[in-house]
Amino acid sequence: MTTDQAGYGASRAVLIGVSDYDNVGFTPLPAARNSVTAMQTLLTDPALCGWSRDQITVISNPKSVSELGIQLTELARETTGVLLLYYVGHGVVTERAELCLTVSSTHPGHPGISGLRWETVRHAFLSSSARVRVGILDCCFSGRAIEALSGPGEQGLADLADIRGSYVLTASRSNRAAHVPPLHEQRTACTSFTAELSDLVCAGIPDKPDWLSFSDIYPVLRQRLTAKGLPAPDRRGTDTADQFQFTANAATRSPRRARAVAAEPTSRALNQSRTADANRMHTSPAVIRAAEGVVRSQEERVQRLLGDLNHARTVGDTAKAASVEEELRNVRILLAQAIKSLDDYTS
């Protein structure tokens, strides 16, 4: 089983963030909004995860549980490559000890009715023909999703067989709350788990391969979080899903370009992104669209070449792999130039 997301064809990332709540029983969570932005930045960085913008669906402050469940299921069914679900918000537990992901309208006294039950997410995973399914849950009690995936005894084995090629990474264990900065700091801060994951990916891991899988990332992420006194994350995977190449290793590759997300703290990256948006009006929209088109075109070339490289390595065609690697280096140079031009137009 290969694990390079670019080689899978139709891949989809769904990023769900809930920062605002109708019921006063849930505190606002501004850090959730920033965390979704940080995750989207990581995924679309061609020097890191390399997803294209049109592969990512962002869902902010959904209100209807049924509409969210339907949307998630439909997106999952359309995905044949990698299906990546990221959720950040409040997590709650039902009377039956089942994890529920909150939406803006969730009632704290009735989470099983007004929240998105993990069983619904599991059903969406089951309905997808994606070769790899990844769930990243940044919420309290998120470890219960792992318990539901693995389960006890024979039923647990059946669950594992049902969702082959799945990997779930959670911000906490089943009985632990996730950690967020104090409310007054959340205007520019991410949740603690996502901030640490983002910083780790941007820095890379020395003495690891050029591409980092979750099996590479998780031990370092756990060590970094627990060293700061933060909740320990958890994970569970089936087949070789933990070998999915999530990101390029920033520690072993010379930087292709200067990016705020790679060189600055997350909060500063967010501020620079907003500044760039404000300055966009100073350049002709047609010029900006053309520059964006060039960037997208080069990003797509990078993804196609990554797929070709992964295939060549899988079948043991070393000559082909060497040829693709050389072309990939040249295309990345062109991509860096295109991004620099776009940055010049929008700054």
- Strand order in the largest sheet: 2-1-3-7-8-10
Report the CATH architecture of the largest domain.
3-Layer(aba) Sandwich
Helix content: 40-55%
Largest sheet: 6 strands, mixed
Radius of gyration from the alpha-carbon trace, in angstroms:
20 Å
User: What would you call the shape?
Assistant: globular
Task: Tell me the β content.
Answer: 5-15%
Number of domains as seen in the coordinates: 2
Q: What is the tally of helical segments?
A: 12
| CATH-assigned fold name of the largest domain | Rossmann fold
Low-pLDDT stretches are 1-9, 143-162, 254-282
Q: Structural class of the secondary structure composition?
A: alpha/beta
Give structural notes.
The protein has twelve helices and eleven strands. The longest helix is centred in the last third of the chain and has 31 residues, at 285-315. The chain is α/β, with parallel strands linked by helices.
How would you concisely characterize the structure shown here?
The chain is of the alpha/beta class and 347 residues long. It has helices spanning 30-44, 65-77, 111-114, 118-127, 143-150, 153-162, 192-203, 214-227, 260-263, 266-279, 285-315, 318-345; strands at 12-17, 56-60, 82-88, 91-93, 99-101, 116-117, 132-138, 166-170, 211-213, 234-237, 245-248.
Task: Name its key features.
Rossmann fold, Methane Monooxygenase Hydroxylase, Chain G, domain 1, six-stranded mixed beta sheet, three-stranded antiparallel beta sheet, 11 strands, 47% helix, 14% strand, disordered N terminus
